[in-house]
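Quick one, tokens below. Sequence please?
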């Protein structure tokens, strides 16, 4: 019996040493990959910040085809997306550079994890409110001004920003129910949801699934409506209907595809960690955790740059900026303020009341234009 116990003890010791060796090798490999990951995160952060700065410069003033409420919602989305590059990335990079990775959880890491989760959740809620506003603008155009009043729009935006703070507040408590550690694989302060499966499932059920359901329903209805409208135009032989670009397919489908591509892996891994209690390979975790932040840059493309009115307003602002900073260089480059630009600018700067009454749809869809043509 003593021999057996000694052998077993010896085997157990060898197994422990083997596990420790594997763990150390994995940690060293993650630390070796850290400069590459920091470079990827930094480049992504610069792209998100510059893209959203350009968006703020344009939609802070009136843009043709966008109602005032639409601009409020889009400014809210821009603020949430900008927080990826201005808050989430700097905080986590700061932790990755100054924190001793052998340490356990600390108050600063809890605060960083709280900001991470709050910004991610606010972005999802904001995308859902934009889809809801667009749905009302298209399907209830005559009642838009009474259904989506400025007060209700502000309440929806406030909910998208305040509710995640209240819901995720327990993450910020160092001695709370959620344990947080810094992950050398993803360079993020991560809550260990495996220690509280119920809380993890609650977060997923109150954030990702409701927002995804609203976005899917609203955008699917918009896509079907646009498809029916296009069929009617073709059936009644309206001129140019065959050559008209498929606005819904070009905007709505990419928006939903990018949303699910960016957010689903992160949610799946969170649920997997909660239910299995084990992690995933290093680069899979890194990509899944940081992929949602790329949505902050892609939103600039699908919600703004694909819109012609936005591009024209941006070019006009660039011309004004060029002429204001260096008139001689601006004239040499052809940045001249023409009469047409001044007329367009005047229309853009004075069309808020008209847009509110017609309840024009936001920048991601021009379905009202198609609907108006059916009455010609």
């Amino acid at each position: 019996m003593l021999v057996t116990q000694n052998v077993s003890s010896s085997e157990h010791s060898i197994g422990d040493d083997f596990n420790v060796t594997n763990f150390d090798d994995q940690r060293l490999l993650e630390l070796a990959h850290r400069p590459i990951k920091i470079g990827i995160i930094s480049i992504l952060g610069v792209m998100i910040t510059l893209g959203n700065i350009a968006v703020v410069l344009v939609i802070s003033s009136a843009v043709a085809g966008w109602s005032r409420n639409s601009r409020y919602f889009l400014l809210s989305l821009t603020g949430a997306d900008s927080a990826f590059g201005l808050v989430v990335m700097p905080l986590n990079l700061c932790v990755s550079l100054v924190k001793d990775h052998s340490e356990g959880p600390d108050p600063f890491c809890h605060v960083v994890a709280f900001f991470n989760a709050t910004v991610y959740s606010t972005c999802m809620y904001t995308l859902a409110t934009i889809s809801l506003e667009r749905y009302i603008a298209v399907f209830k155009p005559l009642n838009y001004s009474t259904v989506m009043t400025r007060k209700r729009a502000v309440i929806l935006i406030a909910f998208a920003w305040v509710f995640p703070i209240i819901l995720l507040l327990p993450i910020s408590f160092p001695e709370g129910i959620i344990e947080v550690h810094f992950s050398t694989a993803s360079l993020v302060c991560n809550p260990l949801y495996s220690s509280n499966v119920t809380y993890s499932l609650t977060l997923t059920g109150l954030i990702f699934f409701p927002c995804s359901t609203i976005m899917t329903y609203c955008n699917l209805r918009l896509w079907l409506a646009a498809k029916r409208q296009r069929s009617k135009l073709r059936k009644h032989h309206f001129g140019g209907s065959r050559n008209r670009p498929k606005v819904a397919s070009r905007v709505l489908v990419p928006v939903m595809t990018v949303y699910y591509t960016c957010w689903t892996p992160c949610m799946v891994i969170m649920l997997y960690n909660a239910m299995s209690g084990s992690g995933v390979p290093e680069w899979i975790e890194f990509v899944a955790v940081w992929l949602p932040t790329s949505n902050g840059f892609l939103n600039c493309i699908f919600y703004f740059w694909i819109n012609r009115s936005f591009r024209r307003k941006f070019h006009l602002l660039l011309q004004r900026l060029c002429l204001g900073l260096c008139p001689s260089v601006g004239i040499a480059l052809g940045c001249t303020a023409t009469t047409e630009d001044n007329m367009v600018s005047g229309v853009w700067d004075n069309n808020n009341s008209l847009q509110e009454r017609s309840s024009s749809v936001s920048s991601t869809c021009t379905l009202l234009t198609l609907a108006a043509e059916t009455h010609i």
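DSSP finds 13 helices and two strands in the chain. The first strand starts at residue 180 and ends at 183.
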